[in-house]
Amino acid sequence: MKKVFLCALCLVVACGACLLTGCRGNHQKSTASAAAAASEVLEIDDLLLGADSLVGRTVTIEGICTHTCKHGARKIFLMGSDDTQTIRVESGELGSFDPQCVNRIVRVTGRVDEERIDEAYLANWEAQVKAQTAEKHGTTEAGCSTEKAARQETGNTVGERIADFRARIAARKAAEGKEYLSFYYVTASSYEIQQ
What is the pTM (predicted TM-score) of this model? Predict the structure, then answer.
């Protein structure tokens, strides 16, 4: 009886050890996979394609810097496969970007954020323009041409831009039932000029 009990106990201990070793090995693999995924560098095209599912997550992206905001270099724009695949990157707590980023490959790590443009946003913009308190981007009323291209804007005046947004919101409401436009950007926590 003692021998049966000892054999059973050894069997239980051996099985437990195998299970613990197997589970620990799987945990290490999944942790390593998660770390690899977090450090993966996304192409701009891929980020834009899945941006709605990445909001709030930290990503690392890399692209050609096509523009640095002239007002303190607080924004840069990174291009993917062509100029229709562009994302805005804001400096956030970094303060500003090095103007030497332009025409170079830049790698950025940061949080994906969403800016929604809806009727309330447009009404507020109109009120700011009327009160002459609207923030200016670019050197003309048309605004920053790089930011306009990233958002696929066509208007050349503030009024035309607002009308364009309203038409696009109406089209989206008809097609998807959503009464807003989503524009995605990255708030940088770090960046590095690659070449």
Answer: 0.71
